[in-house]
Amino acid sequence: MTGDLAPDTVGVMTRRACADDIHELCMSLPEVEFGTSWGDRPTYKVRGKGFLLHRAPHRTAVDPETGEMYDDLLVIVTASAEEKEALVGDERLPFFTIDHFRGYNAVLVQQSRLDEIDRAELAEVITDAWLAKAPRTLARKFLDG
């Protein structure tokens, strides 16, 4: 393996994910709008329901090594607590959670750590987030298409 290429789950070479992939992946899904929520936070929504949010720095999410508030966090919705735990529990993935998100089906990831996964993995996580918020008929149409 060389450079930015990594094998995906079926052995096909894909490149590492990066922050620039977020907008492209989100907007490639049906009926996605880029807007704001929580005042001014950039948010990707499907029919008004947010599935990926750029989180503002907050005292509830600090780097344990530096004590500084994270300034590049994404909040990505998960379909269930089990899916959240699977993402957080996989040590090879950069996803994590904080006490503030206890009981809320979403994971956090620093944009600066997206290169720890490949683009295909990021696309799957974002698609699953979209599916968790999309109306059933729209999700079914997307999956059947």
Structural commentary:
With 145 residues, this protein is of the alpha+beta class. The chain has a single domain, classed as Aspartate Aminotransferase, domain 1, CATH 3.90.1150. Helices cover 28% and strands 23% of the residues. It has helices spanning 21-27, 81-89, 119-133, 136-144; strands spanning 5-7, 13-15, 32-37, 41-46, 49-54, 73-77, 106-110. A five-stranded antiparallel beta sheet has the order 3-4-5-6-7. A two-stranded antiparallel ribbon has the order 1-2. β1 (5-7) and β2 (13-15) form a beta hairpin. It is globular and about 45 Å long. The N and C termini lie far apart (33 Å). Mean pLDDT is 91; it is low at 5-10.
First and last CA, distance: 33 Å
Number of strands: 7
**CATH C-level class:** Alpha Beta
Average pLDDT taken over every residue: 91
Oligomer: single chain
Net shape: globular
The SSE string, one letter per element, is: EEHEEEEHEHH
CATH topology-level fold name: Aspartate Aminotransferase, domain 1
Q: Which architecture per CATH?
A: Alpha-Beta Complex
Biggest beta sheet attributes: 5 strands, antiparallel
Amount of beta strand: 15-25%
Helicity level, as a percent range? 25-40%
